[in-house]
Amino acid sequence: MLCKFCITCINGFLTYDFIESLKNQKDFKPYIIGVDVLDRTKGKILCDKFYKISNPKKNEKKYIADILRIHKKEKFNVILPLSDIENYLLLKNKNLFREKRINFKLPFNDFEVAKLFYDKKKFLKFCDENNFPTGGYKIVDRFDKVNGILKKNKSKKYILKPIKGSGTKNVFLVNEKIRKSIKILESRECVEVNSKILKKKNIFKENEKYILMPYLNGNIYDVDCIAVNGKIREFCIRLREIKNRFMFYSTGHRIIKDSKIKKLISKFVSKLKLNGICDFDIIKNKNKVYLLEASCRFSGSVGACTKSGINFPAQVIRYMMNLKKIRYKIQYNNSFRSFLVFKKIKNTKKNILLDDYIPHYSKQLRY
């Protein structure tokens, strides 16, 4: 059975693992249509067809028009959004697609839940109201509010992040013990600062709202889940094995079991009656489990699960296309590094992988 998949954000650093997870399946044959806002993208070489699209953050109408144009030409069965903003906009425009008789499938279809996950303020409020621990937070829209909290707790570190955003972009680690700013991730404008440096940055000038949270020093976990009518059908916990905990993609994972994490996620999935693919960020501090973020799309590093026995991208396709599900058996306590693309694209002078990132490999490490 030939399936045409449109995969967005094809420039992601872990695209290789994701696309490989869809290939070599016995029950369907994938035809990969990749799209991205960049024309010169490393994921381009992995696709059967590639299209450059408008930036969804800058122009929603042009982005949706591009998706419609590509669908008219390619007639893809499924679209797999790999970024929060694209997932949000595709779900927001479901009625438009229906009016135009555009009939592709999405791995998640509840726009109200997508809105909840996309707005971190609403998400945290929902967690508070339903007793899902988040570690505490304050919504701040002025520097003096931040400074007042810092003065009362000079020995503590805090995370300051935008209400709407993805990963660690424009995230600050606020630490009153440092004198100079420290670049954590230059490409994502993720910086460690003190209150004086933060004030000079004037981040609240356009009435932007931020979330101020205590910095919790503990293990971080990614949780992948396929849910059907509020019940977990497929589940995997990945312990992040990283040197820089602010990396916007994880450089390694250990597949583990944890009953506390599974209990928390099961309760959350049931409360919202989730249906489709879900991804959760968890931190464990002093044996307490906190829910940091949730999304209704694939995690960029979900390919690590494939290496350990459970293929989420392929299994989601089976759920969407009503194919017979495979009973996967997870291998626990293996560690994996994800794979980045190095191959040159024709007629380019240098490698497509950006020079300022450290490559990681698909080698399996056993302990």
Describe the structure concisely:
The chain has 367 residues and is α+β, with helices and mostly antiparallel strands. It has helices at 15-22, 60-74, 84-92, 94-99, 111-118, 120-129, 143-152, 195-201, 259-272, 303-307, 312-320; strands spanning 2-7, 29-36, 49-52, 78-80, 138-140, 158-162, 172-174, 182-185, 190-193, 210-214, 219-228, 231-240, 253-256, 276-285, 288-295, 334-336, 364-366.
Question: What would you note in describing this structure?
Answer:
This protein has 367 residues and is of the alpha+beta class. Helices cover 28% and strands 25% of the residues. It has 11 helices and 17 strands. It has helices at residues 15-22, 60-74, 84-92, 94-99, 111-118, 120-129, 143-152, 195-201, 259-272, 303-307, 312-320, and strands at residues 2-7, 29-36, 49-52, 78-80, 138-140, 158-162, 172-174, 182-185, 190-193, 210-214, 219-228, 231-240, 253-256, 276-285, 288-295, 334-336, 364-366. The strands form 3 sheets. It has a 7-stranded antiparallel sheet with strand order 15-14-11-12-13-16-17, sandwiched between helices. A 6-stranded mixed sheet has the order 5-10-6-7-9-8. β1 (2-7), α1 (15-22) and β2 form a beta-alpha-beta unit. α3 packs antiparallel against α5 (111-118). The longest helix is centred in the N-terminal third of the chain and has 15 residues, at 60-74. The protein is globular, with a radius of gyration of 21 Å. The two termini are 39 Å apart.
